[in-house]
Amino acid sequence: MLRTLPLLLLALGFLTGCGPRLRPYTQSLQEEQQWQEEDLRRIQFYLSEDVVLQRELRSGNSRIRNGSVQVINGREVEQVVFRRNTPGVFTFSPKEQRIAISFEEDDGNFLLFGPNPKNGGRYSLLASNWDRNSGTVTYAGREWRVSSADAFASLLIPLKRIREEDTRGRVVRGRRL
Hints:
single chain, Lipoprotein
């Protein structure tokens, strides 16, 4: 048992060190890198938190395509769940400081993100009509409710920081007689 513990710790450290390090996608990073739309198309985005979209179904409207149907407080509710670390791709930018990210094969199914000053400038989920408990987002051409806790769900990107210093030098070999 005592011999295997150090091996397990070493293996755990090795496995956690191999994966990509995800960093928040922020307004300052965007400004620093000056990425254009063609650059954003080559970046893999990830969600920082779970996001759950819900919409109440009307009677006779129970055909489900993207989510699951649940009964909540006697109402039929359709849900679309985006798990933490779900990968997504840039589809378009409707205006400055707004980007549409698709987490499905259909580019028409996207969520909008923009810099949130209350979240350190991170590109966070955008919704209209935020109130104390929820907000409204448009997804797949329909309006959905999203919990106010999802307001801080933001985008992450794999980012390797390279030192910006330009190091110049040489190695001295020494001098012999």
